[in-house]
Amino acid sequence: MKSYRKELWFNIPTRRGFINITHQVEEALRESGIKEGLVLVNAMHITASVFINDNESGLHHDFDVWLEKLAPHEPVSQYRHNNGEDNADAHLKRQVMGREVIVAITNGRLDFGPWEQIFYGEFDGRRKKRALIKIIGE
Ligand code: ZN
Question: Which residues neighbour ligand 1 (ion) by CB within 5 Å?
Answer without folding.
Answer: 85, 87
